[in-house]
Write a structure and sequence with these properties.
The protein is of the alpha/beta class and 243 residues long. It has a single domain, classed as TIM Barrel (Alpha-Beta Barrel). The chain is 52% helix and 15% strand. The protein is built from twelve helices and eight strands. The chain has an eight-stranded parallel β-barrel with strand order 1-2-3-4-5-6-7-8, surrounded by six helices. The chain is globular and about 70 Å long.
Length: 243
């Protein structure tokens, strides 16, 4: 018989929330990134006054039919952090791309995959002062290795874990609980979010950053009771002003 993981999840969740309440890994506010290759979408959300950064990759940019470098530079003009992913899979190739991308703009954060070659690249970038974001993190062990190698940001993919039948937010709880014991300066970015509740749960757990798809970001300000309230205010005002 397969035992339920709910007690374990609740325990980890409680530990992470308690650590957050104690300010053990508070960064002042959770940052919100947009996961997109659309410069127009970045401009739209940035105009709300709530956008802190962007995550993108060559695949997303290719779907938009745009030049990767030009797209990244256009985004850098809108937000202070843009994660641009390397395409090489070996250390030498990733090192060269990290040097290249970081030279494009001071807002560029080089996104590196969670592989052994990626760990070497993270260590190289930390020595060179190049900011990095480790992508494709699916376990606490991977998170720890990336942090020790020098990653500035790690990106656990919770939606893909959910797709595989796991509880993606449980991984965030594990990471934040572990982070509360140490002095890692690595920020935890909740990636592969699929719905607004993911963002709310990430905030409860004390995650430093959430990256959000455009369609989900547009749903964050919405609530049916807000709409009903606005409609009632409008009708009440019309009844008074028209009398």
């Amino acid at each position: 018989m397969v035992q339920s993981t709910e007690p374990k999840t609740r325990k980890l969740w409680g530990r992470a929330v308690a650590a957050g309440n104690a300010g053990l890994y508070s960064s002042g506010t959770m940052k919100l990134f947009l996961d997109t290759a659309s410069v127009e979408a970045v401009k739209e959300i940035a105009a709300w006054g709530v956008l802190d950064g962007v995550t993108t990759n060559p695949t997303l940019v290719a779907k938009e039919g745009k030049n990767f470098r030009k797209t990244v530079l256009a985004m850098c003009a809108c937000v202070p952090e843009v994660s641009a992913q390397v395409t090489a899979s070996d250390f030498e190739g990733m090192r060269k791309q990290a040097d290249e991308y970081s030279g494009w703009h001071e807002h560029v954060v080089v996104k590196v995959p969670m592989t052994i070659e990626g760990l070497k690249t993270l260590a190289y970038c930390r020595q060179k002062g190049i900011r990095t974001n480790t992508t494709l993190v699916f376990s606490l062990n991977q998170a720890i290795l990336a942090a020790k190698a020098g990653a500035n940001i790690i990106s656990p993919f919770i939606g893909r874990l959910d797709d595989a039948g796991q509880n993606g937010m449980e991984l965030i709880a594990e990471i934040m609980a572990a982070w509360s014991h140490y002095d890692f300066d690595t920020e935890v970015l909740v990636a592969s979010t699929r719905h607004p509740r993911h963002i709310a749960e990430a905030a409860q757990l004390g995650a430093h950053i959430c990256t959000v798809p455009v369609d989900v970001f547009r749903r964050l300000p919405l609530h049916p009771l807000t709409d009903l309230g606005m409609e009632r205010f409008r009708k009440d005002w019309e009844s008074v002003s028209g009398s």
